[in-house]
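Session log. Operator J.P. requested a structure for one protein chain; no other inputs attached. Running the standard single-chain path with C-alpha coordinate output.
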Amino acid sequence: MRVFRHAMTTLLAFAAVACDQSTQVHERSHPAHSDSAAQVIGAVDGEGIKLADAERVVALELYDLEMQRFRLLRGVTEAKLMAGLDAGGNRDRVAEIRLNPPMPPRLKIPSNPERARPEGAFPIEVVVFCNLESAHCVRSQEQLSRILPMFAGVTQYSDRDLILPFHRHARLAAEAGYCALEQGKYWQYRDLMFAGSGVPDRERIFRAIRASGLDITRFQGCLESGSNGAKLDSDARLARFFGVNAVPAVFVNGLYAGLNPEPAHLIWLIEKELNRLGVDSPRLINARLQSREPLQLIAMIHAADPGQGMAMLAPKASPGSAGFYREGDALGAELTLRRVTTGRIELLKQGVAEWLDFNNRLESTAPLSGSEQEAELDPKDQAVLNHPHRGVPVFLDRTEVLVRMTDINALEASLETVAMTAGGYHLLRIADIQPGSLYELLGLETGDVIVLVNEQPMHEGDTPLWNALQSDDEVRLRVMRRGGMAHHYTYRFQE
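Structure written below.
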Protein backbone atom coordinates (compact mmCIF):
# COMPACT_ATOMS: atom_id res chain seq x y z
CA MET A 1 0.00 0.00 0.00
CA ARG A 2 0.97 3.59 -0.71
CA VAL A 3 0.63 4.44 3.01
CA PHE A 4 3.59 2.30 3.94
CA ARG A 5 5.90 2.65 0.95
CA HIS A 6 8.22 5.14 2.62
CA ALA A 7 7.64 4.19 6.23
CA MET A 8 10.76 2.09 6.85
CA THR A 9 13.25 4.46 5.28
CA THR A 10 11.68 7.41 7.03
CA LEU A 11 11.79 5.67 10.40
CA LEU A 12 15.47 4.90 9.97
CA ALA A 13 16.10 8.52 9.04
CA PHE A 14 14.18 9.59 12.10
CA ALA A 15 16.58 7.76 14.38
CA ALA A 16 19.30 10.18 13.30
CA VAL A 17 17.34 13.42 13.66
CA ALA A 18 14.84 12.74 16.46
CA CYS A 19 16.96 14.41 19.12
CA ASP A 20 17.32 17.65 17.17
CA GLN A 21 13.63 17.90 16.21
CA SER A 22 11.89 16.39 19.20
CA THR A 23 9.80 19.53 19.74
CA GLN A 24 8.21 19.37 16.29
CA VAL A 25 5.21 17.15 17.03
CA HIS A 26 1.59 16.81 16.00
CA GLU A 27 -0.96 18.80 17.90
CA ARG A 28 -3.74 16.38 17.00
CA SER A 29 -3.74 13.64 19.59
CA HIS A 30 -5.06 10.11 19.37
CA PRO A 31 -6.57 9.32 22.76
CA ALA A 32 -7.04 5.66 21.92
CA HIS A 33 -3.30 5.33 21.40
CA SER A 34 -2.06 7.77 24.05
CA ASP A 35 -1.20 5.03 26.56
CA SER A 36 0.79 3.08 24.03
CA ALA A 37 2.51 6.01 22.29
CA ALA A 38 5.77 5.20 24.07
CA GLN A 39 5.61 1.55 23.02
CA VAL A 40 8.79 0.42 21.26
CA ILE A 41 7.87 -1.37 18.03
CA GLY A 42 11.36 -1.86 16.60
CA ALA A 43 15.01 -1.22 17.21
CA VAL A 44 18.16 -0.51 15.22
CA ASP A 45 21.33 -1.59 17.03
CA GLY A 46 19.40 -1.39 20.27
CA GLU A 47 17.99 2.10 19.61
CA GLY A 48 14.23 1.89 19.82
CA ILE A 49 11.61 3.14 17.39
CA LYS A 50 8.43 4.17 19.20
CA LEU A 51 4.85 3.71 18.04
CA ALA A 52 4.36 7.48 18.15
CA ASP A 53 7.25 7.89 15.69
CA ALA A 54 5.66 5.43 13.27
CA GLU A 55 2.26 7.08 13.56
CA ARG A 56 3.81 10.46 12.80
CA VAL A 57 5.45 9.14 9.64
CA VAL A 58 2.19 7.74 8.19
CA ALA A 59 -0.20 10.38 9.56
CA LEU A 60 -0.27 12.44 6.37
CA GLU A 61 -0.86 9.51 4.07
CA LEU A 62 -3.58 8.16 6.36
CA TYR A 63 -5.24 11.56 6.12
CA ASP A 64 -4.99 11.37 2.32
CA LEU A 65 -7.00 8.15 2.57
CA GLU A 66 -9.57 9.85 4.82
CA MET A 67 -9.92 12.56 2.18
CA GLN A 68 -10.42 9.93 -0.53
CA ARG A 69 -13.34 8.55 1.48
CA PHE A 70 -14.73 12.05 1.98
CA ARG A 71 -14.57 12.80 -1.76
CA LEU A 72 -16.43 9.59 -2.58
CA LEU A 73 -19.15 10.40 -0.03
CA ARG A 74 -19.33 13.97 -1.28
CA GLY A 75 -19.69 12.81 -4.87
CA VAL A 76 -22.67 10.61 -3.97
CA THR A 77 -24.26 13.36 -1.86
CA GLU A 78 -23.81 16.02 -4.53
CA ALA A 79 -25.22 13.72 -7.21
CA LYS A 80 -28.40 13.27 -5.14
CA LEU A 81 -28.66 17.00 -4.48
CA MET A 82 -28.20 17.79 -8.16
CA ALA A 83 -30.87 15.26 -9.06
CA GLY A 84 -33.25 17.03 -6.67
CA LEU A 85 -32.46 20.38 -8.25
CA ASP A 86 -32.93 18.96 -11.74
CA ALA A 87 -36.37 17.65 -10.75
CA GLY A 88 -37.43 21.20 -10.08
CA GLY A 89 -36.47 22.44 -13.50
CA ASN A 90 -33.17 24.03 -12.50
CA ARG A 91 -34.72 27.40 -11.69
CA ASP A 92 -34.05 29.38 -8.55
CA ARG A 93 -33.46 26.22 -6.54
CA VAL A 94 -31.38 25.89 -3.38
CA ALA A 95 -30.10 22.68 -1.80
CA GLU A 96 -27.97 22.22 1.30
CA ILE A 97 -24.94 20.02 1.89
CA ARG A 98 -23.98 19.14 5.46
CA LEU A 99 -20.99 16.89 4.81
CA ASN A 100 -17.66 18.41 5.84
CA PRO A 101 -14.08 17.21 5.32
CA PRO A 102 -12.18 15.49 8.14
CA MET A 103 -9.88 17.71 10.18
CA PRO A 104 -6.23 17.11 9.29
CA PRO A 105 -3.27 16.66 11.61
CA ARG A 106 -1.41 19.79 12.61
CA LEU A 107 2.38 19.90 12.37
CA LYS A 108 4.70 22.41 13.98
CA ILE A 109 6.54 23.42 10.83
CA PRO A 110 9.21 26.07 11.48
CA SER A 111 8.56 29.38 9.74
CA ASN A 112 10.71 30.39 6.79
CA PRO A 113 10.68 34.22 6.92
CA GLU A 114 13.38 34.77 4.29
CA ARG A 115 11.12 33.18 1.65
CA ALA A 116 7.74 34.45 2.76
CA ARG A 117 5.47 37.06 1.20
CA PRO A 118 4.19 39.48 2.10
CA GLU A 119 6.73 40.29 4.79
CA GLY A 120 5.59 40.67 8.37
CA ALA A 121 3.37 38.80 10.82
CA PHE A 122 0.02 37.37 9.67
CA PRO A 123 -2.52 35.10 11.38
CA ILE A 124 -2.43 32.57 8.52
CA GLU A 125 0.74 31.07 7.06
CA VAL A 126 0.43 28.85 3.99
CA VAL A 127 3.56 26.69 3.57
CA VAL A 128 4.10 24.63 0.43
CA PHE A 129 6.76 21.95 -0.10
CA CYS A 130 7.40 22.12 -3.84
CA ASN A 131 10.02 22.38 -6.55
CA LEU A 132 10.42 24.23 -9.83
CA GLU A 133 10.34 21.14 -12.06
CA SER A 134 7.04 19.66 -10.90
CA ALA A 135 4.05 20.16 -13.20
CA HIS A 136 1.83 19.57 -10.16
CA CYS A 137 3.52 22.50 -8.42
CA VAL A 138 2.76 24.71 -11.41
CA ARG A 139 -0.93 23.77 -11.15
CA SER A 140 -0.89 24.36 -7.39
CA GLN A 141 0.55 27.83 -7.87
CA GLU A 142 -2.21 28.67 -10.33
CA GLN A 143 -4.81 27.65 -7.75
CA LEU A 144 -3.11 29.55 -4.93
CA SER A 145 -2.98 32.67 -7.11
CA ARG A 146 -6.81 32.56 -7.17
CA ILE A 147 -7.40 31.60 -3.55
CA LEU A 148 -4.94 33.74 -1.59
CA PRO A 149 -6.23 37.11 -2.93
CA MET A 150 -9.53 36.26 -1.24
CA PHE A 151 -7.67 36.46 2.07
CA ALA A 152 -5.45 39.46 1.39
CA GLY A 153 -4.24 41.09 4.59
CA VAL A 154 -4.50 37.97 6.76
CA THR A 155 -2.49 35.37 4.83
CA GLN A 156 1.22 34.86 4.20
CA TYR A 157 2.75 32.38 1.75
CA SER A 158 6.14 30.70 2.11
CA ASP A 159 8.14 28.18 0.09
CA ARG A 160 10.07 25.08 1.13
CA ASP A 161 11.98 22.91 -1.33
CA LEU A 162 11.51 19.18 -1.74
CA ILE A 163 13.65 17.79 -4.55
CA LEU A 164 12.49 14.36 -5.71
CA PRO A 165 14.89 11.88 -7.41
CA PHE A 166 13.14 12.00 -10.80
CA HIS A 167 13.31 15.82 -10.97
CA ARG A 168 16.81 16.05 -12.49
CA HIS A 169 16.99 19.85 -12.78
CA ALA A 170 15.03 20.84 -9.69
CA ARG A 171 18.04 21.08 -7.36
CA LEU A 172 19.91 23.42 -9.71
CA ALA A 173 16.78 25.57 -10.08
CA ALA A 174 16.31 25.68 -6.29
CA GLU A 175 19.94 26.67 -5.65
CA ALA A 176 19.50 29.41 -8.25
CA GLY A 177 16.50 30.61 -6.26
CA TYR A 178 18.65 31.14 -3.17
CA CYS A 179 21.20 33.01 -5.27
CA ALA A 180 18.39 35.25 -6.50
CA LEU A 181 17.33 35.69 -2.88
CA GLU A 182 20.79 37.04 -2.03
CA GLN A 183 20.09 39.89 -4.46
CA GLY A 184 16.53 40.44 -3.23
CA LYS A 185 14.97 39.01 -6.40
CA TYR A 186 13.75 35.60 -5.29
CA TRP A 187 10.07 36.10 -6.03
CA GLN A 188 10.69 37.65 -9.44
CA TYR A 189 12.85 34.68 -10.39
CA ARG A 190 10.47 32.09 -8.92
CA ASP A 191 7.37 33.53 -10.59
CA LEU A 192 9.13 33.65 -13.96
CA MET A 193 10.20 30.02 -13.56
CA PHE A 194 6.68 28.87 -12.73
CA ALA A 195 5.29 30.88 -15.64
CA GLY A 196 7.74 29.32 -18.11
CA SER A 197 7.64 25.97 -19.87
CA GLY A 198 10.03 23.08 -20.32
CA VAL A 199 12.54 21.60 -17.90
CA PRO A 200 14.31 24.11 -15.62
CA ASP A 201 17.76 23.57 -17.13
CA ARG A 202 20.64 26.01 -17.01
CA GLU A 203 19.51 27.92 -20.12
CA ARG A 204 15.99 28.49 -18.78
CA ILE A 205 17.35 29.50 -15.35
CA PHE A 206 19.57 32.18 -16.86
CA ARG A 207 16.71 33.51 -18.98
CA ALA A 208 14.68 33.98 -15.80
CA ILE A 209 17.66 35.55 -14.03
CA ARG A 210 18.22 38.08 -16.81
CA ALA A 211 14.49 38.90 -16.86
CA SER A 212 14.62 39.42 -13.07
CA GLY A 213 17.31 42.10 -13.41
CA LEU A 214 20.01 40.33 -11.36
CA ASP A 215 23.75 40.93 -11.53
CA ILE A 216 24.70 37.97 -13.73
CA THR A 217 28.34 37.79 -12.65
CA ARG A 218 27.44 37.80 -8.97
CA PHE A 219 24.68 35.27 -9.57
CA GLN A 220 26.94 32.91 -11.53
CA GLY A 221 29.54 32.99 -8.77
CA CYS A 222 26.91 32.13 -6.17
CA LEU A 223 25.50 29.30 -8.27
CA GLU A 224 28.88 27.71 -8.99
CA SER A 225 29.87 27.84 -5.32
CA GLY A 226 27.02 25.50 -4.31
CA SER A 227 26.86 27.38 -1.00
CA ASN A 228 23.09 26.98 -0.60
CA GLY A 229 22.92 23.22 -0.89
CA ALA A 230 22.71 22.84 2.90
CA LYS A 231 19.43 24.77 2.96
CA LEU A 232 17.90 22.35 0.46
CA ASP A 233 19.13 19.38 2.48
CA SER A 234 17.59 20.88 5.61
CA ASP A 235 14.18 21.17 3.90
CA ALA A 236 14.52 17.56 2.72
CA ARG A 237 15.22 16.34 6.26
CA LEU A 238 12.27 18.33 7.57
CA ALA A 239 10.01 16.78 4.91
CA ARG A 240 11.19 13.25 5.78
CA PHE A 241 10.67 13.91 9.48
CA PHE A 242 7.00 14.74 8.91
CA GLY A 243 6.38 12.05 6.30
CA VAL A 244 6.15 14.41 3.30
CA ASN A 245 7.26 12.43 0.27
CA ALA A 246 5.49 14.10 -2.65
CA VAL A 247 4.80 17.60 -3.98
CA PRO A 248 3.02 19.92 -3.71
CA ALA A 249 2.34 19.33 -0.01
CA VAL A 250 0.34 22.27 1.36
CA PHE A 251 -0.05 23.32 5.02
CA VAL A 252 -2.26 26.02 6.56
CA ASN A 253 -0.85 27.05 9.94
CA GLY A 254 0.58 23.56 10.08
CA LEU A 255 -2.73 21.89 9.17
CA TYR A 256 -2.11 19.41 6.36
CA ALA A 257 -4.24 20.44 3.38
CA GLY A 258 -3.02 17.51 1.26
CA LEU A 259 -1.17 17.04 -2.00
CA ASN A 260 -2.35 19.64 -4.51
CA PRO A 261 -5.59 20.26 -2.58
CA GLU A 262 -8.81 21.44 -4.16
CA PRO A 263 -9.40 25.20 -3.94
CA ALA A 264 -12.56 24.58 -1.88
CA HIS A 265 -10.58 22.57 0.67
CA LEU A 266 -8.01 25.35 1.06
CA ILE A 267 -10.79 27.87 1.59
CA TRP A 268 -12.36 25.62 4.22
CA LEU A 269 -9.10 25.24 6.16
CA ILE A 270 -8.21 28.94 6.05
CA GLU A 271 -11.70 29.89 7.24
CA LYS A 272 -11.48 27.30 10.03
CA GLU A 273 -8.21 28.82 11.22
CA LEU A 274 -9.48 32.39 11.06
CA ASN A 275 -12.52 31.39 13.09
CA ARG A 276 -10.33 29.59 15.66
CA LEU A 277 -8.15 32.67 16.02
CA GLY A 278 -11.10 35.08 16.18
CA VAL A 279 -9.99 36.95 13.05
CA ASP A 280 -12.57 38.37 10.64
CA SER A 281 -12.34 36.83 7.19
CA PRO A 282 -12.07 39.26 4.27
CA ARG A 283 -13.75 36.63 2.09
CA LEU A 284 -16.92 36.85 4.17
CA ILE A 285 -17.30 40.61 3.78
CA ASN A 286 -20.34 41.09 1.54
CA ALA A 287 -19.69 42.22 -1.99
CA ARG A 288 -21.27 45.58 -2.81
CA LEU A 289 -21.05 45.61 -6.60
CA GLN A 290 -23.55 43.78 -8.76
CA SER A 291 -21.71 41.70 -11.31
CA ARG A 292 -22.02 42.52 -14.99
CA GLU A 293 -20.55 39.21 -16.05
CA PRO A 294 -22.62 37.49 -18.78
CA LEU A 295 -23.53 34.68 -16.39
CA GLN A 296 -26.82 33.29 -15.19
CA LEU A 297 -27.30 31.78 -11.69
CA ILE A 298 -29.64 28.82 -12.03
CA ALA A 299 -29.34 26.83 -8.79
CA MET A 300 -27.06 26.50 -5.79
CA ILE A 301 -25.98 24.05 -3.12
CA HIS A 302 -25.50 25.99 0.09
CA ALA A 303 -23.23 24.80 2.90
CA ALA A 304 -23.07 25.91 6.51
CA ASP A 305 -19.29 25.52 6.49
CA PRO A 306 -17.28 27.89 4.26
CA GLY A 307 -15.75 26.58 1.07
CA GLN A 308 -18.20 23.75 0.51
CA GLY A 309 -20.91 25.53 -1.47
CA MET A 310 -21.60 25.04 -5.19
CA ALA A 311 -23.44 27.01 -7.83
CA MET A 312 -25.01 26.03 -11.13
CA LEU A 313 -24.06 28.69 -13.68
CA ALA A 314 -24.51 29.13 -17.40
CA PRO A 315 -23.39 31.76 -19.91
CA LYS A 316 -26.33 34.08 -20.69
CA ALA A 317 -25.86 33.45 -24.39
CA SER A 318 -26.19 29.68 -23.81
CA PRO A 319 -28.61 28.97 -20.95
CA GLY A 320 -28.62 25.27 -21.77
CA SER A 321 -24.90 24.91 -21.03
CA ALA A 322 -25.15 24.98 -17.24
CA GLY A 323 -22.49 23.45 -15.05
CA PHE A 324 -21.81 23.18 -11.32
CA TYR A 325 -18.82 25.01 -9.84
CA ARG A 326 -17.29 24.86 -6.37
CA GLU A 327 -16.15 27.81 -4.31
CA GLY A 328 -12.64 28.67 -5.46
CA ASP A 329 -13.15 27.36 -9.02
CA ALA A 330 -12.00 29.51 -11.91
CA LEU A 331 -14.81 30.76 -14.17
CA GLY A 332 -12.42 32.48 -16.55
CA ALA A 333 -8.92 33.85 -16.76
CA GLU A 334 -9.60 36.62 -14.19
CA LEU A 335 -12.79 35.36 -12.56
CA THR A 336 -13.21 33.10 -9.50
CA LEU A 337 -16.25 31.83 -7.63
CA ARG A 338 -15.60 33.52 -4.25
CA ARG A 339 -18.44 32.09 -2.17
CA VAL A 340 -21.99 30.78 -2.27
CA THR A 341 -24.20 32.50 0.24
CA THR A 342 -27.93 32.67 0.92
CA GLY A 343 -29.77 33.73 -2.23
CA ARG A 344 -26.71 34.78 -4.21
CA ILE A 345 -23.14 34.04 -5.14
CA GLU A 346 -20.07 36.26 -5.00
CA LEU A 347 -17.32 36.46 -7.60
CA LEU A 348 -13.78 37.80 -7.44
CA LYS A 349 -12.71 39.67 -10.56
CA GLN A 350 -9.21 41.15 -10.59
CA GLY A 351 -9.33 41.56 -6.81
CA VAL A 352 -12.82 43.15 -6.77
CA ALA A 353 -15.74 41.27 -5.20
CA GLU A 354 -19.05 41.24 -7.09
CA TRP A 355 -22.39 39.56 -6.43
CA LEU A 356 -24.82 37.72 -8.67
CA ASP A 357 -28.33 36.51 -7.77
CA PHE A 358 -31.21 34.67 -9.42
CA ASN A 359 -32.53 37.88 -10.95
CA ASN A 360 -29.41 38.46 -13.03
CA ARG A 361 -30.61 36.50 -16.03
CA LEU A 362 -31.95 36.90 -19.53
CA GLU A 363 -35.09 39.01 -19.90
CA SER A 364 -36.87 35.97 -21.22
CA THR A 365 -36.07 32.31 -20.74
CA ALA A 366 -38.55 31.15 -23.39
CA PRO A 367 -36.98 29.05 -26.16
CA LEU A 368 -36.03 31.03 -29.22
CA SER A 369 -37.44 30.19 -32.62
CA GLY A 370 -35.13 28.82 -35.25
CA SER A 371 -34.92 32.17 -37.07
CA GLU A 372 -34.25 34.03 -33.79
CA GLN A 373 -31.50 31.59 -32.93
CA GLU A 374 -29.86 32.03 -36.27
CA ALA A 375 -30.04 35.80 -35.96
CA GLU A 376 -28.75 36.14 -32.40
CA LEU A 377 -26.33 33.24 -31.88
CA ASP A 378 -23.03 32.44 -33.51
CA PRO A 379 -22.37 28.83 -34.62
CA LYS A 380 -20.57 27.91 -31.38
CA ASP A 381 -23.46 29.11 -29.23
CA GLN A 382 -25.92 27.35 -31.52
CA ALA A 383 -24.00 24.10 -31.01
CA VAL A 384 -24.30 24.58 -27.26
CA LEU A 385 -28.08 24.85 -27.49
CA ASN A 386 -28.21 21.76 -29.68
CA HIS A 387 -26.42 19.78 -26.96
CA PRO A 388 -27.76 20.88 -23.54
CA HIS A 389 -25.72 18.25 -21.71
CA ARG A 390 -23.76 20.38 -19.32
CA GLY A 391 -24.76 19.63 -15.77
CA VAL A 392 -28.31 18.68 -16.83
CA PRO A 393 -28.70 14.87 -16.95
CA VAL A 394 -29.15 13.44 -20.43
CA PHE A 395 -30.56 9.95 -20.88
CA LEU A 396 -28.76 7.66 -23.30
CA ASP A 397 -29.54 4.24 -24.68
CA ARG A 398 -26.91 1.84 -23.34
CA THR A 399 -27.08 -0.37 -26.44
CA GLU A 400 -26.42 2.57 -28.76
CA VAL A 401 -23.47 3.62 -26.60
CA LEU A 402 -22.00 0.11 -26.71
CA VAL A 403 -22.42 -0.07 -30.48
CA ARG A 404 -20.41 3.14 -30.88
CA MET A 405 -17.75 1.74 -28.54
CA THR A 406 -17.06 -1.41 -30.57
CA ASP A 407 -13.72 -0.01 -31.76
CA ILE A 408 -12.10 1.49 -28.65
CA ASN A 409 -8.72 1.55 -30.41
CA ALA A 410 -10.15 3.98 -32.97
CA LEU A 411 -11.64 6.11 -30.18
CA GLU A 412 -8.29 6.28 -28.42
CA ALA A 413 -6.55 7.07 -31.71
CA SER A 414 -8.67 10.25 -31.81
CA LEU A 415 -7.09 11.39 -28.52
CA GLU A 416 -3.83 13.29 -28.24
CA THR A 417 -1.81 14.36 -25.21
CA VAL A 418 -1.60 17.96 -23.99
CA ALA A 419 0.98 19.69 -21.82
CA MET A 420 -1.18 19.58 -18.67
CA THR A 421 -0.71 16.60 -16.39
CA ALA A 422 -2.56 14.71 -13.63
CA GLY A 423 -0.86 12.12 -11.45
CA GLY A 424 2.29 12.51 -13.53
CA TYR A 425 0.45 11.66 -16.79
CA HIS A 426 -0.55 13.95 -19.62
CA LEU A 427 -4.22 14.80 -20.08
CA LEU A 428 -5.96 13.89 -23.31
CA ARG A 429 -7.63 16.08 -25.92
CA ILE A 430 -10.12 14.96 -28.56
CA ALA A 431 -8.27 15.77 -31.77
CA ASP A 432 -10.88 14.51 -34.21
CA ILE A 433 -14.60 13.70 -34.01
CA GLN A 434 -16.04 11.59 -36.81
CA PRO A 435 -19.73 11.82 -37.76
CA GLY A 436 -21.70 9.17 -35.94
CA SER A 437 -18.93 8.57 -33.38
CA LEU A 438 -19.32 8.11 -29.62
CA TYR A 439 -17.90 11.58 -29.01
CA GLU A 440 -20.62 13.11 -31.19
CA LEU A 441 -23.31 11.17 -29.30
CA LEU A 442 -21.95 12.53 -26.00
CA GLY A 443 -22.13 16.10 -27.30
CA LEU A 444 -18.38 16.64 -27.09
CA GLU A 445 -16.43 18.89 -29.44
CA THR A 446 -13.07 18.74 -31.20
CA GLY A 447 -10.41 20.16 -28.87
CA ASP A 448 -12.22 19.17 -25.66
CA VAL A 449 -9.93 17.97 -22.84
CA ILE A 450 -11.69 15.36 -20.68
CA VAL A 451 -10.35 16.09 -17.20
CA LEU A 452 -12.48 13.90 -14.89
CA VAL A 453 -14.76 10.88 -15.31
CA ASN A 454 -16.85 10.31 -12.17
CA GLU A 455 -14.22 12.25 -10.19
CA GLN A 456 -11.42 10.05 -11.58
CA PRO A 457 -8.68 11.71 -13.70
CA MET A 458 -8.58 10.70 -17.34
CA HIS A 459 -5.09 10.74 -18.85
CA GLU A 460 -2.64 8.72 -20.91
CA GLY A 461 -2.11 6.34 -17.97
CA ASP A 462 -5.77 5.58 -17.36
CA THR A 463 -8.92 6.06 -19.47
CA PRO A 464 -11.86 5.33 -17.11
CA LEU A 465 -14.44 6.63 -19.63
CA TRP A 466 -14.87 3.28 -21.39
CA ASN A 467 -15.58 1.26 -18.24
CA ALA A 468 -17.89 3.95 -16.87
CA LEU A 469 -20.00 4.03 -20.04
CA GLN A 470 -20.26 0.22 -20.03
CA SER A 471 -21.22 -0.36 -16.40
CA ASP A 472 -22.03 2.79 -14.35
CA ASP A 473 -25.60 4.00 -13.85
CA GLU A 474 -24.46 7.61 -14.11
CA VAL A 475 -21.42 9.06 -15.86
CA ARG A 476 -20.21 12.58 -15.04
CA LEU A 477 -17.60 14.34 -17.15
CA ARG A 478 -15.66 17.52 -16.44
CA VAL A 479 -14.43 18.95 -19.73
CA MET A 480 -12.16 21.90 -20.40
CA ARG A 481 -13.14 23.73 -23.58
CA ARG A 482 -11.32 26.47 -25.48
CA GLY A 483 -9.54 27.62 -22.34
CA GLY A 484 -12.78 28.99 -20.91
CA MET A 485 -15.29 27.79 -18.32
CA ALA A 486 -15.28 24.13 -17.41
CA HIS A 487 -18.21 22.16 -18.79
CA HIS A 488 -19.98 19.48 -16.80
CA TYR A 489 -21.79 16.62 -18.54
CA THR A 490 -24.05 14.13 -16.80
CA TYR A 491 -25.35 10.99 -18.57
CA ARG A 492 -27.89 8.46 -17.30
CA PHE A 493 -29.03 5.32 -19.03
CA GLN A 494 -32.39 3.96 -20.03
CA GLU A 495 -32.02 0.26 -20.51
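Operator note: Residues 1-34, 361-391 have pLDDT under 50 and may be disordered.
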